[in-house]
Amino acid sequence: MGKVKRELGSDAIILHTRNVKQSGILGLFKKNLIEVVAALEEKNMDSEYHSITSNTALDKMKSNINKDKSNAPKNKDYLEDEIKKIKSMVETVVNTLDSKKEELPDVFSKYFDSLIYNGVNRDVAFKILDRINQQINMANKDSIQTQEIILYSIRDYLGEPSPITYDGKQKVIFFIGPTGVGKTTTLAKIAANFSINKKHEVGLITADTYRIAAVEQLKVYSEIMNIPIKVAYEIKDIYKSLSNFKDKDIILVDTAGRSHKNEEQMNEVKELIESVNNKEVHLVINTTTDFETIKDVLNRYSFITDFKIIFSKLDEALSLGNILNTKYFYNNQISYLTTGQNVPDDIEIPNMDKLSERLIGE
Fold first, then answer.
1. Are 281 and 304 in contact, with CB atoms under 8 Å apart?
2. Quick check: 157 and 327 in contact, CB under 8 A?
3. How does strand 202-206 pair with strand 171-176?
């Protein structure tokens, strides 16, 4: 992937791979090569609807593509998203002039500014500091004590991290979320950790048969890590795959990126998840997404009783405030943070103490 991205750019995708034997004396003393076919994925509003993986006849494929295009986001939805982005940008500017800051004691002034600067919603920043002011007499606290008290409070809102663990019983892990948030890459990182580092038996299932080369992408990772993979085109394929993986400790399921605004697509996700017992669900969210959209996504996935959150692409985010914003309004635990495209390195269990310090500019 590194070589491909260096040659074609960060948007490149792998279409196909195969092992190639070099010519030599009876094939001896020659290392096998890997041939990679890659391309740049075309990106536009309807990109996720151009990617149908099927073994059926061409006319059925065309029918499926046309059907999916009928569900493509309309101009109204696109404009709503743009309005949300503009609203978020304006709110960031207004935050610097917010009168709420004047309602807090001077001792909180710099912390309020730091939280806003680091992307925390102004109401969230005010309510966190105002609650401290109501609970604790800050008049006799020095700067070190004040900072410790604020860090305690932020740390409490962030809660404890909840990464995937293996307790001796087979566990099925679903990765869900909108298109383009990094589900497949995140899954590969976690698969490598459990298979290579922790020596667990891991199986992969991909139900993402819509996106261009999604199956091939995960197959590349499975071949490199020597982890078996199954493709699920429909619910009954999940049952077959689970039967084949009955000896595995952990099974990781990559789902198709779905629009949280499309009720039919959300019902497909619900049906897939409810078909399995002894499972965990991890919702992957791009940290750079504006907070109004994050709230909308979380509300649309509320039919899942207990999902955890993975914040992806921290390396692309200008600030980390959305993590605190999300935790302030929702009780879902955070399982992982991802910080780049490198597999398996760019993923970590969140250190809430360090995150709290970064949010106040320390």
1. yes
2. yes
3. unpaired
Kindly state whether residue 90 falls inside one of the protein's structural domains.
Answer: yes
Name residues whose C-beta falls within 8 Å of residue 102's C-beta, 6 or more positions apart in sequence.
none
Domain of residue 129: give its range. Answer: 76-158
* Predicted TM-score of the model (pTM): 0.70
Q: Considering its fold, how many domains does the chain have in total?
A: 3
- Does some domain include residue 308? yes
CA–CA distance, 362 with 358 (Å, rounded to integer): 5
Identity (one letter) of the amino acid at 136?
I
Tell me the backbone φ, ψ of residue 258, rounded to 5 degrees: -120, 145
Digit-by-digit pLDDT tens for the chain (362 residues) are 778 878 888 777 777 677 766 655 555 556 677 777 777 765 544 433 333 333 434 444 444 444 444 444 556 666 777 777 676 666 655 555 455 666 788 889 899 999 999 999 999 999 999 999 999 988 888 989 999 999 999 999 999 999 999 999 999 999 998 888 888 899 999 999 999 999 999 999 988 766 656 678 888 888 889 999 998 888 888 899 999 999 999 999 988 765 556 567 677 788 888 888 888 999 999 999 999 999 999 998 888 888 999 999 999 998 999 999 999 999 899 999 999 888 888 999 999 999 999 999 87
